[in-house]
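quick one before i forget lol
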Amino acid sequence: MKTALRIAALALALATPLAAVALAPVQPFSATYEVRRNGDVLGEATFSLARDGANWRFSAATRGTAGMARIAGVRIDEVSYFRYVDGRPETLRYRFDQKTSFNSRQRSADVDAAAGRVALVNKGERVDVPFVAGVVDRQLLTVALMQAVAAGRRGEQTLQVLGRRDIEAQVWDIEAKEQVEGLGLAWRLERERDTPDGRSTVIWLDDDAGHLPLRIEQREDDGEVIDMRMIRRG
């Protein structure tokens, strides 16, 4: 009997992490994207979502492989450690590290929900801001939008997003499905802005069960366009 109980306990312990993954709102994935600036190839970025103990980790590694980005040796690494609260992601820690052959930049965020504060560090300067439930960093925002689509939410969605010195409420509109050339059918999500200054951010999420990002386009008010398109999964 004792042996049977030990075997049952071991089986339960082994099954628990698998069950947790199966029940997660967004499943683990890895995907690589071609990064273009104003139509010219700059490099590649790889997104990876994985378990991190009892919580989760979402990371992105961008490498300059063409043009000036390759010459400058551009390397950008971002990682978001997060948990799910009521089925929605919430940042625990965020790290941003950009390096080139001539300079480097770092940013970080540490969320202390129990103490009710968030420590934001940019260029060595720290600012503490009040904690807001459900807050996500700028990178984890992608997972939050994936979760929203997976949950069947449509129309305007307001998310609390960590910036360099504060937390801002961003409004995103989950619009209709449309074809993304060469990539398939996708949900179109666009950030709504208070002023029509020419800036826009649009994300296309795959219509399949995973809702992976197929394309991300950022347009700045000076006309610059950064375009990321998926080139492979896994």
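fyi The two ends are 44 Å apart (CA to CA).
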